[in-house]
User: What shape does this take?
Amino acid sequence: MTIDGQSFGGRGRVDLLAKIAEHGSITHAAKSLKMSYKSAWEAIDTMNNLAGEPLVERLAGGKGGGGTRLTNRGEQLVVNFKAIQQEHWRFIEHLGRQAKGMADSFILIRRMAVKTSARNNFFGKVTKISRGAVNDEVELEIVGGIKIVSIVTCESTKELGLRVGAEAFALIKASQIILVTDDKGAKFSARNRLNGSVSRVQTGAVNTEVIVDLPGGGTVAAIVTNESSKTLGLKKGKKVMAIFKASSVILGVYP
Assistant: This one.
């Protein structure tokens, strides 16, 4: 528990209060917790200061000048802490039962936390690596079973730990995506060709951002000039092909 960013007390300090209530003595409470008398009082002083009122009070009379007991506030703190602790245990048990789903969500949240300037960010698994003398061709399967290819140096393949079955993400800038509406049998040198349909068109002063829905639920964003958008007749529902070079695909892995 914290108050204004300062540690008020955890299980150790609350256990000390509970032992004081049980023994009526700081000395015996400290001994039962294998704590020095000085450390016990230092902990009590800290809690009293943070609480703004005494949690422990001395009793007059008795051997050694009297015993000690908890104030009403101190007693309530022990009761409330135990209640909070029980709720925490229930939460942990529930979390344990949902471990698989929670772990998957945690991993997804971590992926979403990665910020890049690239408009297109795909997560997937490596399905094929074609080794070369200088560069490797790495195939990554992304959402919807779509496969994209990236050209990286052999050194990068090694440093990233890329291998078949390994998880990785691919980054492609929207400006690197070329949209084709009717290829008429044309052939392209670009290694990656993704078919889809336009879902959104956002026209700016000079360029237009086009979002293309891919089979399986993925999307790819492209930036084209306003003139090109007009010439291609880009609008919602339009069938297009998004093409980009393998050298335009940057691969990365999560730590």
In short: The chain has two domains: 2-97, 116-252.
